[in-house]
Design brief:
The structure is a single chain. This protein is an alpha/beta fold. It is built from 5 helices and 9 strands. The protein has helices at about 10-25, 30, 65-70, 75, 120-125, and strands at about 1-5, 35, 45, 50-55, 80-85, 95, 105-110, 130-140, 145-150. The strands form 3 sheets. The chain has a 5-stranded mixed sheet with strand order 3-4-5-7-6, with helices on one face. Strands 1-2 form a two-stranded parallel sheet. A hairpin with an 8-residue loop joins strand 6 (about 95) and strand 7 (about 105-110). The protein is globular, with a radius of gyration of 16 Å.
Length: about 150
């Protein structure tokens, strides 16, 4: 299992401390668990032909594909299926960037949240999003093969 910590825009320090503390609670070698708790706003995990990018999603997305291709060129070039997972907006949305004659492009997926509306979101009228958790299953060779959604 690969656990990836990405800082949010409201709780950068506290979220780091909880991720770091959790990483110390497991016998990592025995359980085959890897915690990436390095402080970085963009991270990439490669799994076979899959390129998984992770970021909070609170910054511009105009050049997201270009930034990942530039910052992680070896991983980008070695993979066929490329997805960036974000969660800032607490709602589900997917944007796909496909170039001409390219079958596999780059998808930016905004994941929903399981948490209920806090005061800031209520005050700013960001209400009504479905409370969901999404699990995607990716095959080493074939890319995404399944998706499961849990709705509260």
């Amino acid at each position: 299992m690969h656990v990836v910590y990405v800082p949010g825009n409201h709780d950068r320090l506290s979220s780091f401390h909880i991720a770091h503390a959790l990483s110390k609670c497991f016998d990592l070698e025995e359980n085959n668990i890897y915690f990436d708790v390095e402080y970085a706003e963009r991270k990439v995990v490669v799994y076979g032909h899959n390129f998984f990018a992770f970021e909070h999603g609170d910054v511009t997305k105009k050049n997201t594909a270009l930034v990942y291709a530039t910052e992680f060129p070896v991983s980008w070039g070695a993979t066929k299926y490329r997805t960036c997972y974000t969660g800032h907006f607490h709602s589900k949305k997917t944007v796909e960037f496909v170039t001409e004659n390219e079958y596999n492009g780059f998808a930016v997926k905004h994941l929903p949240s399981l948490c209920s509306t806090d005061y800031w979101h209520y005050h700013n009228k960001f209400v009504g999003a479905k409370r969901q958790a999404i699990m995607e299953i990716h095959d080493v060779e074939k890319g995404k093969i399944s998706e499961f959604i849990y709705t509260v």
